[in-house]
Design brief:
Helix content of chain B: 25-40%
Number of helices of chain A: 9
Distance between the termini of chain B: 40 Å
Number of helices of chain B: 6
Structural class of chain B: alpha+beta
Strand order of the largest sheet of chain B: 6-3-2-1-9
Number of strands of chain A: 0
Helix content of chain A: over 70%
Largest sheet of chain A: none
Oligomer: heterodimer
Shape of chain B: globular
Largest sheet of chain B: 5 strands, antiparallel
Number of strands of chain B: 9
Strand content of chain B: 15-25%
Structural class of chain A: mainly alpha
Order of helices and strands of chain B: HHHHHHEEEEEEEEE
Largest interface: A-B, 74 and 60 residues
Strand content of chain A: under 5%
Order of helices and strands of chain A: HHHHHHHHH
Chain lengths: ~180, ~230
């Protein structure tokens, strides 16, 4: 896995906005495997994830002109389109349990540091800050982010009322934020 | 909603907002730059989690389907001429209305496509495109009578579903303007509805229209009103 260079991704996006198909194809080649991995975790099946990936890239083609490099890294923009699409799909359906995850020790899983130094630092910081949270609250955040769990699904998994889950989420997100912003 | 805005932004990014709150939040997002910043901040905070995921190569036919859905000409239609382009993958390309609004629709002038004589004073038109060549719907608004004329040109309705037309004035909640079929229709504008910057969108709904009174299906066409 190679580190995706932001300035390259930005140039592909700018060219895509001008209708450059070759740049768009290259953007796909570089980023689709990561975006597909995100969709596969959240969506119930591979075929749904493939459809969603098509939707995501058509949206990228259509909206490339609205990407602004000042607002953040290109990959972040692509990831947010991808996650929003996935979450819209699962929230639009009747509550269906996401596939049970193979492993509940999420924090230990966040160790695949395959990127560059800055990326490693960011991940290490996030990992540290997640580590300061209580385990249940931390797992709520990770199940939601990685697997698209709703408040209701978290409530049933943890055997707590939905209101408690919401409180956990808000409290732990606030702690996470102050840890992250204090650390950087 | 009494929740602190930043927590809503956090839960939006995390994905835990229930569908109705999510939709309301997206409407807010479309019009409030401060909310946009909160969301970007949270996206940035949580983004490193994605680095921990192992890449998965999608199968070859995904790219083929994407490529096939791009417009036929070599160059994309410039954004200023483009309304929401309809996907070749018929009823799947979905966008929540607020999301599509946030992306910004552009209007297109198509005087030459309009065969009916224009109204004497103040009329607006929205052309709702398919692929950039032929419009799927032409929507005219006559200000004098506050009437909306809808003329389907090349719409096709998926089996067992209905197409429903929505009026979206100034980021207000979408108001149903009824179903779209093969025939021309005229509809009165909603009471007090603003015209400036109004958008129309067509969504795929269960047969007979949205059961909830709000759009539930993907947007298949959309367009913004343009003063003639």
């Amino acid at each position: 896995m190679t580190r995706l260079d932001n300035s390259e991704l930005v140039s592909f996006l700018v060219a895509t906005a001008r209708g450059d198909r070759a740049a768009f194809a290259e953007l796909y080649r570089r980023t689709a495997p990561k975006l597909f991995a995100i969709l596969l975790r959240i969506l119930p099946s591979k075929s749904v994830a493939e459809e969603a990936l098509q939707d995501v890239f058509l949206k990228i083609w259509q909206n490339a002109g609205s990407f602004s490099p000042e607002a953040g890294p290109a990959m972040g923009w692509l990831v947010s389109i991808t996650r929003n699409r996935a979450i819209d799909i699962i929230r639009a359906k009747n509550p269906a349990k996401p596939a049970e995850t193979e492993n509940t020790n999420f924090l230990a899983n966040i160790v695949d540091l395959s990127g560059g130094e800055e990326q490693m630092m960011e991940l290490a910081t996030l990992r540290h800050c997640l580590g300061t949270l209580e385990e249940s609250a931390r797992n709520c955040i990770l199940l939601a982010y990685y697997n698209g769990y709703s408040r209701e699904e978290l409530a049933s998994r943890f055997g707590r009322p939905v209101g408690t889950i919401k409180t956990w989420l808000h409290r732990s997100l606030a702690l996470l934020k102050s840890c992250l912003e204090g650390a950087t | 909603m009494s929740d602190e805005p930043d927590m809503q932004a956090a839960e939006y990014v995390l994905g835990t907002l229930p569908a109705d709150e999510r939709r309301a939040f997206e409407a807010l997002l479309a019009r409030d730059p401060a909310t946009r910043l909160d969301v970007e901040n949270w996206e940035h905070h949580l983004a490193p989690l994605n680095d921990a995921l192992n890449d998965v190569e999608p199968s070859e036919n995904v790219w083929q389907a994407i490529e096939a859905a791009l417009p036929e000409s070599g160059a994309a239609t410039p954004p200023s001429l483009l309304l929401l382009r309809r996907s070749r993958n018929r009823w799947r390309t979905a966008a929540i209305i607020a999301g599509a609004l946030a992306a910004g629709f552009a209007a297109v002038s198509i005087d030459h496509l309009l065969k009916t004589p224009r109204e004497a004073a103040g009329s607006y038109v929205a052309v709702v495109n398919r692929t950039g060549d032929q419009p799927a719907l032409i929507i005219r608004v006559d200000l004098a009578t506050r009437t909306v004329f809808v003329r389907p040109v090349a719409t096709s309705v998926p089996q067992g579903r209905s197409l429903e037309l929505w009026y979206i004035g100034n980021h207000l909640a979408p108001k149903s303007m009824g179903l779209v079929d093969k025939t021309d229709r005229s509809i009165a504008l909603p009471q007090g509805a603003p015209i400036e910057k109004a958008n129309f969108a067509v969504t795929v709904e269960p047969q007979g229209g949205s059961p909830s009174g709000a759009p539930t299906g993907p947007i298949v066409y959309s367009g913004q009103l343009l003063k003639e």
